Amino acid sequence: MNSVYIEITNVCNLHCSFCPCGTTAGNESAADNPSISANRAFMDSKLFETCIAGAQEIGATNVYFHVLGEPTLHPGFAHYVKKLEQTPLKLTLTTNGTTIERTGHQIFASPAVRQVNFSTHAYAELPRETAERYLQNVLDFCSLAIVERPDLYINLRLWNIGAKEASPWNSYMLKRIHETFGVDVTPGHFCSRHKSFNITGRLYLHEDTRFEWPSLDESSSTNSTGSSTGSLTLSHPEHSIDRCDVEESNSKIVVGTCRALDTHVAILHDGRVVACCLDHSGQITLGHIGKQSLSEILESPLASNIREGFAQHELRHPFCQTCTFRKRFK
Ligand code: SF4
Ligand code: SF4
Q: Sign of the C-alpha dihedral, residues 25, 31, 33, 37?
């Protein structure tokens, strides 16, 4: 097990159309929808410490601070990064970069931060002036990092290749990269086997297509005859399927595999342990980190069954059967 995703918050300040974070709470206020906003929260310090103890217990070396949400919005972000410094764990921070002017110095100052991924594809949906300002802040951070933290890996992510509406923004990004670092990154070079382009030092442009979030709602709302299957429609985050009987979900075995529960696992902001960083609503809840140790949870019958299925190229959980993200790593 290399990595644990710890969702220190599921709050975000952007409302990306392609993200469940952006299309649910982000577009609704507490007054509009108390049930949704009640699910937006910051992980408390005690739970965070339990999570990093669990990560060390299972031998992980790397943590992320997200599943959904923008981690730098957590009021304890700097404190949590400091906590990592007392452990062997390293942080790969995935951020939308909107707070980098304020948090950049905390990131530079911490040897626990090994890598920063900037989700610059999120800017394609913002008003141009705002987007350009955020990008400038990110590029300033990168320029400084090259001098002050040459050991830091940085990815400028453009995970929107092929999305027509994102084209003008992507072209602008490439122009600004050229102007800032004197390097031409040609988008024509992008292909499924070539997604990462070195800009300079440890700074990279990472391109990819958009991915679909797996969803039990979509896959189960109708079956092949067009009638409702009913049994797998789970729209509430508290509802999860706590078994993965192939017969229950589908009459035939669904072929596929995934590295989840082998190389990584995720913990939601409220302590629920889920199989991967795509399960933002706890559809595969394996246990609760506040009630059981992470190693016990990973050895539970459900986790073992799913992992054994992956090893045998069977997607045993209905949620995994709806997932296309796993195919990106073939
Ligand atoms: S910035 Fe990231 S977490 Fe926030 S809405 Fe966009 S994709 Fe989701
Ligand atoms: S198959 Fe998809 S949903 Fe299932 S554990 Fe892997 S990444 Fe997560």
A: positive
